[in-house]
Amino acid sequence: MRPAAGIVTNRLIVALSVRNRRLLDGRLHAVTLKKVEVLFEPGDDVVNVLFPGAGTIASLVVSMRDGATAEAAMIGQEGAIGGIISAGDKPAFTRGIIQIAGPAWSLATDDLEEAKTHSHTLRDHVARYADCLLAQVLQSVACNTIHDIEPRLARWLLATQDRIGASELHLTQEFIAEMLGVQRTYVTRIVGNLAKRGAIRTTRGTVVIVDRALLQRQACECYAYLRRHFERLLPGVYGHVDG
Ligand SMILES: [Zn+2]
After folding, report:
1. What is the CA(243)–ligand 1 centre distance, in A?
2. What stretches in the chain show pLDDT beneath 70?
3. Would you give the distance in Å from CA 133 to the centre of its chain?
4. Is the pTM of the predicted complex or chain greater than 0.85?
5. What is the pLDDT of residue 7?
6. Which pLDDT belongs to residue 85?
7. Which CATH class is domain 2-128?
8. At the top level of CATH, which class does the domain 148-219 belong to?
9. Can you spell out the DSSP letters for 89-158?
């Protein structure tokens, strides 16, 4: 984590009222996060909240003893990672990593808690986001259990595109396999299927979404369901790519 040079745009921060934003003024620090940077490990005290800027994506990842991993939630410019749910410094349950490098706002968890004591609308804003994050985790449980890898991958690519706002995603197939918790060879086959249908195109280390409408038709219902829930709780914050 190093100081950021440019302006950081995080939609959860942008949606704050002027009064609530003032409560955080001087406490938010712009930082730049590196790819695969580990934000916290399980058991670490979570002393910061990070609000990813446009194009930055962080993930909550659960790791097993044999090294297998799976993503529990993806967080971009619509949200925050770290001490956003618990009130105060609490140990992390998952690993927090940076999936796509970029800028973010960093805020001490203690500062957020202090600001929340002055504003019930700030508490409500944070609680609404925490509910959206929990919904994402709950949906992941059902999705991973019930849905096939192809619609899951389509959903995951759409969610990634929403957060970076571009059709070119710099992601290796190894990384996608780690996030979805499946074998790399499986991902290669499924990526090939989506490419054959014309939804995506791949080059080394990059997936390009060429037909988003088609990819949406390939995705499981979890994608639209989560987006709808987010829109109800925090209107305008999710900021997806299409209308
Ligand atoms: Zn699903």
Report:
1. 21
2. 1-6, 87-88, 240-243
3. 9
4. yes
5. 72
6. 75
7. mainly beta
8. mainly alpha
9. S-B-SSEEEEEE-EEEEEEEHHHHHHHHTT-HHHHHHHHHHHHHHHHHHHHHHHHHHHS-HHHHHHHHHH
Q: Distance from first CA to last CA of the chain, Å, rounded? A: 34
pLDDT at position 243: 44
Interval between CA 223 and ligand 1 midpoint (Å): 7
Query: Reduced to 3 states, what is the DSSP secondary structure of residue 196?
Result: helix
Sequence-ordered list of residues with C-beta below 8 angstroms from that of 242, at least 6 positions apart, any chain: 212, 213, 216
User: From ligand 1's centre to the CA of 140, what distance in Å?
Assistant: 7
Q: How far is the CA of 70 from the centre of ligand 1 (A)?
A: 15
CA of 42 to the centre of ligand 1 (A): 26
Q: How is the chain split into domains, by residue range?
A: 2-128, 148-219
pLDDT in tens, 99-143: 999 999 999 999 999 999 999 999 999 999 999 999 999 999 999
Q: What is the reported pLDDT for 68?
A: 81
Cα of 142 from ligand 1 centre, angstroms: 7
Angstrom CA distances, 200 to 150, 166, 195, stand at 13, 13, 5
| Ligand 1 centroid to residue 151 C-alpha, Å | 7
DSSP characters over 166-193? SSEE---HHHHHHHHTS-HHHHHHHHHH
